[in-house]
Records
---
Amino acid sequence: MKKPSTIEFDGRNGDYVIDGVSLLQHLSRHESIAANDYQVAIGCQTDVVRRLGGAMPPDLQGQWIAIYLCGMCGGYDGNPIGMRLKRNDDYVMWSEIGFYSDHEEGNAIPFGKVRQYVFDPGAYGAFLAHADRYEYRG
């Protein structure tokens, strides 16, 4: 397996930063999504950090976790951007990144270029602890 990616949460700009780059901007550039149509799920829904840590079940059909939601309302309208979380003692993986539905099973469109990231479990734990400070509390 290649060297793990780094992950941080930029609370000022409200985005995941993977390998030093805003994930939303990276997806905009490589998957041609409209970045203004999305906002990070941590800032608009409760329990996102717990889902990202595997302590709560995924919020999208088919066992995907929403990482970006509607840029206008923060809800699941439209096509949330989600991923599957896989973790063990050696790594944490975000895989099958793409557009997913919160209500229709099988309504998934995985991205063609940005497909997965692998993180060191210790660094991922630090990311979760920092991101928790910015999570929407309702």
Note: The chain has a mean pLDDT of 92.
---
Amino acid sequence: MFFPIQDLACTLHVSRTEMSFPLHDSPLSLVVAERGADWPRWAERFEAGTPNVVVVAQKDNEDLSGLSHRVRERLAELSAEDQEVTRAVIVGGGARDSAAMAARHSTIKAIVAPMVALGRGTLILDASGPDRFCMAALASTVASMVRGTGVKVVATSDTIADVA
């Protein structure tokens, strides 16, 4: 189902867990939103620089491994459609246990691997709650692993990075 960016606020109230803004023949951005995350600002920011934005949000009854699985499925669909994710953000919802870290690791790997193959891309790990240090640690680790590939991995807590 496709929604124009103007309808973003409306979709929040009806608990949409996946949405896409109209896809064009250009790179796209991905927003992965954990339950409780402040993600709409990222969709708006990404839409300003990349008209194609896909949002995958955690469902109320879903754990982070379920969200990670859905993200991987959506990325496979996009790849089959020859769509390239060049910008992505994972917006944390506060979890900082080992299960959350494992699920985020799986999600990060699924997002970053195609970017490395393309030789370009940006992944942002965002959190302003108790998980912000976990996100920063993940970003630092992954950034060192992809150094020199053309992929940038960063963490931010309360400020939206200038990636448009």
Note: Strands lie at 18-20, 28-33, 52-57, 85-91, 121-126, 151-156.
---
Amino acid sequence: MNPVKHVVNSWLLANVLHPFLFCGQVLIMQGNVDLGLFPVVFLLGLLFSLPALLFCSTFIYSIRRLELGMSISFTLWILLGLVSFLLCSWLVKGYFDIKPEAMTGFIPALLSSAISVLLRMPQFEDLLTFKAIHNESDLV
């Protein structure tokens, strides 16, 4: 599997999950939610998470080059996903001058990112396994 394809699929899954989690958070905090918020959150999530997509696309190549064990590589992938989320959040917060109390709105985005990485663990394993098999065939 292509590493960028893996990252894009994980990014898309996180962006599909994000509006559900965001609307759930609004429902819990306010008691009701306007469903018209759903497509707005989806589109803004796509737009604001583009830097994280670029960060993760570079991180995945670094992880594959290190040739660590599966559990260490996956742990590193989770941590670098968190780092890319924090970098992206910092960029968005700085550009739009978001107040600290409004940062709770970023929690659903963080959760959707983590859930997407965890749900796509088998594909991550396939990605690393494919690289190992491909490298062994180059030696012949």
Note: The mean pLDDT is 87.
---
Amino acid sequence: MSRSCKICWIILAVFFIGNIVVLSLWLTNSGNNNDSGIVKNSDRARVKEQWKQQFIRKLDLDTVQFAEFERLRNEHIQQVISYQHQIDSLKEQLMNQTFSGTSDSVIVKKSINDIAELQKRIEFLNFNHYKKVRAVCRNEEQRLKLDDTFRHWMDQPKGRRGRRGMGPR
């Protein structure tokens, strides 16, 4: 066998192995189109509609009840966002104190206490929001289904449920 023939076989083997690697990677990721876990804008409406239909079906809700759920959710989100922005601002002040040459302990303590107070308000908001949501249910059976659904959402690993209860960032 000549030297040029051996080189051709080696090149052919490298291409063959490369194709196998690419093919195996492609096949293992075929069902995973979005590795980041972020829903694409084109899919948001479809996902929201699927979630809505599943929620209505699972809890046996009528359209009036679901509209009230959405109104309460949107109101709650706006309130939590407001508090979360204040917390973020206080954390920024705290970070600035951390990186300053001389930090003022009074400012640090006040920032930490203010963050704790705002977080406490968020927890009260969450509690009262859930009471309002449960009040929308027609009967105890619906409330039990709602409780089970919420427990399921809260028991999911943090990466699957986002920052639920922690406010947006």
Note: The chain has six helices and no strands.
